[in-house]
Specification:
mainly alpha, 4 helices, 0% strand
Length: 95
């Protein structure tokens, strides 16, 4: 078996004693190290923020109108057609 070497990046933070104590208490309550707690919490929040900024949620009616408009477009729009195909595959679990 071959092992793949992983590289790790470092993030340094400075904070007040009050915030550090809060984080230490929360990590302890969750049964986690401070590093694992900070990394996990930051990762989840980052995913939430990006999902809010990068995803658009449409109702079924709006989605159908959007898809119909693409189908009736005067000129081909390959990027939009590819986006629809990715969305349909995602809905069907073909991610």
């Amino acid at each position: 078996m071959s092992t793949v070497a992983q590289t790790h990046e470092r993030i340094d933070l400075r904070t007040s004693p009050e915030i550090k104590e809060l984080i230490v208490r929360a990590a302890s309550s969750a049964g986690m190290s401070v590093s694992a707690f900070l990394l996990g919490t930051a990762q989840e929040r980052a995913k939430q923020i990006l999902a809010e900024k990068e995803m658009i949620t449409l109702t079924s009616r709006d989605w159908n109108a959007f898809a119909k408009a693409l189908d009736n477009a005067e000129k081909p729009r390959p990027k939009l057609s590819a986006a629809i195909k990715r969305h349909r595959n995602w809905q069907q679990g073909k991610r």
